[in-house]
């Protein structure tokens, strides 16, 4: 049974359709990536799944519980790291986590241990008595991940977990996230608009303008773009070309004095290629399609073109809508 | 029936009607369930208390405000107003000053929800498996705790103002302060649900809190106000709290400075508004787009 099931979910704010008839399933114990540019409907979907918003139509289930009708059960089963921090900056890290433990009715005798373990897991135990306002962005995000795990949820939602972090904190955070399914027995549902981050996901859904436009494993999605490109520098391009045609049946093309071949599984191809061309190879490089290429192919635009602006307009619209109602 | 009674009846019935609306009638499924999670209530209060203790400046300004009113405004006005039956203007003002202390600290505490909204912390509470009712109770009790503490600090001034209170009276005043704090905090939560950002703070302060203070009978008896303002005073939940405090602290039977309503009416309104505001706030919190 899938741990998350979404059926024909639609959410409209006034006449803006933030989420447009989406359906997907997430398998237990995996990392699922929800990819798309800002304003594509990722956060709205998360808000519906974590019972903060009611959908206009459609249904969503977490661990078999209906997100609309059994919100109390759903809330027990999920942990969330929102896009903007939701820590109390005037409390210490430790106090923030204890607050959480009480809210989720963790047994009193277990609170201390669980909070301590969670802090150790994200490497913040030594700084547990510092006020959160003294924490850096990366530390705050790690603390929020730790907090989201205290009540042992079945699903952990991460909404743009690395947004606004410096590269080092980002790598650091990723180490924790990739360990989550195994160490904490939790399914991770994450959104991001950084395509390279989505590589760790078992499955990905790409969302644009509220619609899911592609779904699959990162490998499957990248195959849709066409496969890997191997670039070769050789001592004799002409001879090499012929050799490649003869041995692999592949057409090599020439560009700026370099040969290039498009093929699936380029990594496996290289050793054979070198063997076949013997001493002629000067250098080889492999270019694999990125998820960015996938997005580019599907939508005709690069994913980061519309940073912020999309989100800002939606935020504005939603505010205006709320004022009217 | 004379006018005030008709009015009070109307107030009661409209609140009764409102509470019916809130809890859901007409055979519909209960709109509001009232499960109470004590863990959650405890921790919400504990958080507020911890922050209250930590923010010295908040405590200092909370104590300074009533002192400024009592000694600067009270000292000036007591020269204009003759004591009535041994009650000076400053003494008359004292219950109102307790009301002021409670009003400001309760509203401050409750509309910190707007801060929590703005800074995101509210989401942490809203996605937890905790009923909205418990959240509202927790928030209202937070306001009650910090306001009562501040009111008690101000109350300690009574010997310096020539007011005589027995130990039982003091206990009664403290309990009353807690009740008033609860109802005003609950009112504050209802307010907070209508605002999205802290820019609305000054709006709330200038157009709701200050008028509530002036028209609560704290500075001048409700019975002396012009009719329109008297009407506003009567729909002001703080009025009944201040009035009940007057019964305890300056229990005059007659005259312009005596309490405006009966003690039973005061207590009735305080309890009733508390319940109504809590239910209303829980209902408003439940609302999703």
Based on the model shown, name its key terms.
heterodimer; A: about 325 residues; alpha/beta; 4-stranded antiparallel β-sheet; B: about 290 residues; mainly alpha; about 70% helix; globular
Query: How many strand units of chain A?
Result: 14
Judged by helices, strands and strand pairing, the structural class of chain A is alpha/beta
Structure annotation, total helices of chain B: 11
Largest sheet descriptor of chain B: none
> Beta-strand level of the residues of chain B, as a percent range?
under 5%
Overview of the structural elements:
The complex is a heterodimer of chains A (325) and B (289). Chain A is an alpha/beta fold and 325 residues long. In chain A, 39% of the residues lie in helices and 26% in strands. Chain A has eleven helices and 14 strands. In chain A, helix 3 (93-103) packs across helix 4, helix 3 packs parallel to helix 5 and helix 4 packs antiparallel against helix 5. Chain A starts with a strand and ends with a helix. Mean pLDDT of chain A is 85; it is low at 305-309. Chain B is globular and about 55 Å long. Chain A binds chain B through residues 13, 50-54, 72-73, 75-76, 78, 80, 82, 84-91, 95, 98-100, 102-105, 319, 321-322, 325, and chain B through 37, 39-40, 42-43, 46-47, 50-51, 54-55, 119-131, 196, 288-289.
How would you summarize what this structure contains?
The complex is a heterodimer of chains A (325) and B (289). Chain A has 325 residues and is an alpha/beta fold. In chain A, 39% of the residues lie in helices and 26% in strands.
């Amino acid at each position: 049974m899938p741990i998350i099931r979404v059926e024909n979910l639609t959410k409209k704010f006034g006449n803006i359709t933030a989420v447009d008839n989406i359906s997907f399933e997430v398998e237990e114990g995996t990392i699922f990536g929800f990819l798309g540019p800002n304003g594509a409907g990722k956060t709205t979907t998360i808000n519906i799944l974590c019972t903060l918003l009611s959908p206009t139509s459609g249904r969503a289930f977490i661990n078999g519980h209906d997100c609309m009708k059994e919100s109390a059960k759903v809330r027990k089963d999920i942990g969330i790291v929102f896009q903007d921090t939701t820590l109390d900056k005037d409390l210490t890290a430790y106090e923030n986590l204890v607050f959480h433990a009480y809210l989720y009715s963790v047994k009193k005798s277990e609170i201390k241990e669980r909070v301590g373990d969670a802090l150790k897991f994200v490497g913040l135990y030594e700084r547990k008595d510092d006020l959160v306002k003294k924490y850096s962005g990366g530390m705050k995000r790690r603390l929020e991940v730790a907090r989201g795990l205290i009540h042992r949820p079945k699903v952990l939602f991460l909404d743009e977990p690395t947004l606004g972090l410096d590269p080092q904190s980002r790598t650091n955070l990723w180490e924790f996230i990739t360990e989550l399914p195994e160490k904490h027995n939790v399914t991770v549902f994450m959104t991001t608009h950084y395509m390279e981050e989505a590589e760790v996901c078992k499955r990905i859904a790409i969302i644009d303008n509220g619609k899911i436009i592609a779904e699959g494993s990162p490998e499957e999605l990248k195959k849709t773009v066409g496969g890997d490109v191997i670039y070769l520098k050789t001592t004799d391009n002409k001879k090499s070309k012929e050799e490649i045609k003869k041995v692999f049946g592949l057409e090599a093309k020439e560009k700026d004095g370099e040969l290039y071949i498009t093929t699936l599984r380029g990594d496996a191809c290289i050793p054979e290629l070198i063997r076949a061309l013997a001493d002629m190879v000067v250098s080889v490089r492999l270019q694999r399609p990125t998820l960015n290429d996938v997005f580019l192919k599907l939508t005709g635009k690069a994913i980061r073109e519309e940073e912020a602006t999309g989100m800002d307009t939606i935020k504005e619209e939603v505010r205006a809508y709320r004022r009217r109602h | 029936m004379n006018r005030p009674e008709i009015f009070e009846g109307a107030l009661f019935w409209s609140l009764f009607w409102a509470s019916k609306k809130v809890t859901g009638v007409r055979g519909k499924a209960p709109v509001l369930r009232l499960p109470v999670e004590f863990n959650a209530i405890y921790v919400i209060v504990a958080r507020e208390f911890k922050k209250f203790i930590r923010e010295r400046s908040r405590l200092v300004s909370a104590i300074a405000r009533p002192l400024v009113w009592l000694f600067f405004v009270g000292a000036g006005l007591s020269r204009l107003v003759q004591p009535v039956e041994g009650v000076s203007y400053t003494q008359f003002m004292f219950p109102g000053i307790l009301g002021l202390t409670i009003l400001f600290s309760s509203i401050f505490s409750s509309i910190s929800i707007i801060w929590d909204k703005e800074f995101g912390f509210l989401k942490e509470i809203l996605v937890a498996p905790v009923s909205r009712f418990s959240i509202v109770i927790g928030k209202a009790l937070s306001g009650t705790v910090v306001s009562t503490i501040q009111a008690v600090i101000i109350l300690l001034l009574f010997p310096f103002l020539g007011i005589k209170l027995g130990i039982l009276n003091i206990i009664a005043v403290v309990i009353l302060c807690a009740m008033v704090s609860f109802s005003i905090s609950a009112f504050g939560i209802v307010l907070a649900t209508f605002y999205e950002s802290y820019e609305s703070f000054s709006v709330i302060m200038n157009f709701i809190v200050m008028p509530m203070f002036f028209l609560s009978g704290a500075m001048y008896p409700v019975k002396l106000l012009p009719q329109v303002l008297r009407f506003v005073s009567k729909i002001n939940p703080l009025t009944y709290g201040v009035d009940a405090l007057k019964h305890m602290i300056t229990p005059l039977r007659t005259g312009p400075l005596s309490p405006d309503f009966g003690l039973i009416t005061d207590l009735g309104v305080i309890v009733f508004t508390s319940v109504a505001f809590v239910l209303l706030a829980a209902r408003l919190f439940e609302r999703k787009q």
